[in-house]
Input
Amino acid sequence: MTAIMNYVNRKGDAYYVYQGVTKTGKPKYYVSLKAKSDAGQQIVSLPDDFELYEHPTDARVSVRKKQRSDIHDFELEFVRDRVATEAQNVIARVVIQGRSLVIYESPNTGHFNRISQGMGGLPNFAIREMYSTSQMSPAFRFKLIGKQERIFEAQRFCFRGSVDDWVSLHHEGPLDELCQSYLKHMGKESFYELM
Output
């Protein structure tokens, strides 16, 4: 028997993958938290041009057309590794969105840091639990502006009610330089002073 396709998000919710049909008779793909659906059949794999996507903010899962990007997988892994080492005790997630590497963090990171300092560090199971249950908000974005040279522009998310958008930090360079300059500010008050 062939295994059906499913996906477990960071919160531990299991999503089942289905194929149904649109009103015009074309195939459609979707996920559900239910193991049975009247609208479609569970499948073992998606077509090559589709993928499962876990939304970084709230861990919802959906099926979408595969996104093309000029960002390389090794660049994504590099930033993930640097977040883990440079921004310790920060509940964060790094994803590729278009031509950018976007770093999301839990708005409770500062609170977690204070708890961690009071306890002399948090055990791994506590960090995993916080990661799985946290809502995430965008913090930094490294936008690819020089494809051949692999030059990125550093931006941070501005949470002022009149802005709520990305603002440039007027710093361009390779990923290692940007990570060194900015990741240390995650979960700290100094993040809000960056402009």
Summary: The chain has a mean pLDDT of 87. The chain has two domains: 6-65, 73-193. The longest helix spans residues 73-86.
